Amino acid sequence: MSQSFENHLRKINELITIEDKDRKPYTDAYNEIRDTLLNGMCEMSAAFGQMYKGYRLFGSYMHNVRLGKPDEFDVLFILKIPFGEKLKVSMDKKRPGLVKLRYGGNLDKSPLNENLRLVINELINVNGRRRKPLRRTVLQMWISNIIKNVLEKIGNRVQADGKCLVLKYSKRGVAHTIYATDVEEPHFSFSIDFVPAIQIEGVIPFINKGATYPWYAIPKPFKGKYLDSPGNSFQLVNPDMEHKLLLDKQHLKVVYRLLKSLRDHYKLDKLKGAFLTSMFLWEIEKRSENFWQEPINEVFLEMLEVLKIRFETRDLPYFWSSSHNLMDNLNDDEIADYAVVLNIVYWTLESYPEQAALTFQACARHFQILRHF
């Protein structure tokens, strides 16, 4: 077996990995915007300030699988809902794998200041004695209005490390996205996805993993087969456990980056990071620790084949709730098209380990490489 393919994959990984010199300007600006926005939201809304319990990075930058430059950040801002210990988590029958949050017990006699009481009454849509599930859509509208007011107050601008950054806001799915652009150097730009995360304080009866780390419910509206369901479903996430599982698997993150680069080259835009993360988490559960120490080309081809089969069988369960099939977010034609592309690419690359004369250019043409080589 030739070493050419292994060496070429290692070189491609070097070219797509964020360089240390690129990190600081982006992280400094990100830190300034994050603190300005979240602190401003606490000042703008007394209720938000009382519920807000901090933030944490998640996603590709935290997992160190971001490609090229650190120009996208994902941030959970944690909300501790009043009477959180009485918040019951139940499966949503209309959206398999997702959950509803509903209060149990008597809330009327519990002490609560006026600001929080008004917000809670809106979120749970109090109707006589019948208490409805927490409404995802109302939560998102409330947060969106606070963000807009903060941005208006600061004139949609932030000073960071000598840069004047113009901020634009967009509501995209689960995220409240801030786009930042340097006034003097417009090529310096990045985005931050701020995602609200409700802290789950009680036991989740149908979950049997990740219990040692905190659970959160995020108001994610999934598109696809379950588009017509009501606006009160949430997705459970466990970012700390996820990070721990992905950590210290020798070649896993290299292969993760290579698959993302291949995805970008072939414009498989609906193949989101959440798909790849769930796929890797299932494989971590199935495989020995030694597997991730195998040569990069072997792990890469193995994971590419797993991904190919997932699309061929139209089955990729969300790791934290296996009844939620992530494939439901794509339509049938998209799944079929992606399966064809992945099948062709897999069988092409599968032949490369035997090709002693394999050139770097022949290998690199399957990947999105932003830096010159």
Structure summarized in a few sentences:
It holds the Pfam family Mab-21_C. The chain has 373 residues and is of the alpha+beta class.
Biggest sheet descriptor? 8 strands, mixed
Which structural class fits the helix and strand makeup?
Answer: alpha+beta
Tally of DSSP helical segments? 11
Low-confidence stretches: none
- In terms of DSSP E residues, the strand content is 15-25%
Rg over alpha carbons: 22 Å
CATH topology of the largest domain: Beta Polymerase, domain 2
CATH architecture of the largest domain: 2-Layer Sandwich
The helical percent reads 40-55%
CATH class wording of the largest domain: Alpha Beta
What does this protein structure show overall?
There is one protein chain. This protein has helices spanning 4-16, 20-44, 46-51, 114-124, 136-153, 239-246, 252-265, 273-286, 296-313, 332-349, 360-364, and strands at residues 52-57, 72-79, 87-91, 99-103, 157-160, 163-172, 175-182, 189-199, 216-218, 235-237, 317-318, 321-325. By secondary structure, it is an alpha+beta fold. It has two domains: 3-16 and 243-365, Poly(a)-polymerase, middle domain; 20-238, Beta Polymerase, domain 2 (2-Layer Sandwich), CATH 3.30.460. The strands form three sheets. Strands 1, 2, 5, 6, 7, 8, 9 and 10 form an eight-stranded mixed β-sheet that branches. The protein has a two-stranded antiparallel sheet with strand order 3-4. The mean pLDDT is 89.
